[in-house]
Amino acid sequence: MKERKFVQDAVNRLLITEYIKSETDTAGYGGMEMKRTPFGNNITLHVNKPGLVIGRRGMKVQEITEHLERVFKVESPQIEVKEVDKPDLNPFIVSKKIALTLEKGWSYRRAGNTALRRTVESKSKGVIIRIGGKLSGERARSQKFISGSIKYSGEPARVGMLRGFAVAKLKLGIIGISVGILNSDYRLPDEIDVSPPKIVESTATITEVKGGEPSGTESKTDQGNEQ
């Protein structure tokens, strides 16, 4: 029974994500975070244009909240809308922008290189863009645009890489765009900080010298004269 509940929760969460993504697609969907709290379910939406999601007098957010309660049986959903600080470092927004440029008639090379340049100029550690489908003929193929450091396996790929996907509908067929960006806040295992060596200042005792000899001592010549 527990296994079935886990599977059902995962499926329900996926359906919720797809619904919210479709409702906020025009506003530049940038990701969603859903957490359970004692007061209900807290849902944080990251979008490029928060005004389109909130709507006039919060009508759009209220509509999404009621739909989540009625259809997906979400208990007391509380939706918070946040604006994405750096849109060119968000894989969801970058992939959607590429899809829109392709639908406007841009060539896939121009769209991919433009998005790659903007992401690199935003000081990303690494980015990979893959555009696949009928790009220039009847036969489907894919083209990759890569810059910086890309992780394909292990924890850096699972945690450090942020991934987004979008679809462009063209006359030749469907074009898929997948974007992977290495999180700038993620610390890679091979990043090591070496502290500079500490310089210890030694205090040396300086003895005053009179006539080439330390003070407080008598030369052998003076001792002989006194005798």
Describe it for me?
The chain contains seven helices and nine strands. Helix content is 35%, strand content 27%. It folds into two domains: 2-83, K homology (KH) domain (GMP Synthetase, Chain A, domain 3); 87-182, 2-Layer Sandwich (Ribosomal protein S3 C-terminal domain), CATH 3.30.1140.32. The protein has helices spanning 2-23, 50-54, 59-70, 91-103, 108-121, 154-160, 220-226, and strands at residues 29-37, 40-47, 77-83, 126-133, 141-148, 161-169, 174-182, 209-210, 213-214. It has a four-stranded antiparallel β-sheet. A three-stranded mixed β-sheet has the order 1-2-3. Strands 8-9 form a two-stranded antiparallel ribbon. The protein is α+β, with helices and mostly antiparallel strands and 227 residues long. It is globular, with a radius of gyration of 32 Å. The longest helix has 22 residues, at 2-23.
Count of helical segments?
A: 7
Helix content: 25-40%
Structural class: alpha+beta
Tell me the count of domains: 2
What is the name of the CATH class of the largest domain? Alpha Beta
In short:
Strands 5-4-7-6 form a four-stranded antiparallel β-sheet. A three-stranded mixed β-sheet has the order 1-2-3. A two-stranded antiparallel sheet has the order 8-9. The protein has helices spanning 2-23, 50-54, 59-70, 91-103, 108-121, 154-160, 220-226; strands at 29-37, 40-47, 77-83, 126-133, 141-148, 161-169, 174-182, 209-210, 213-214.
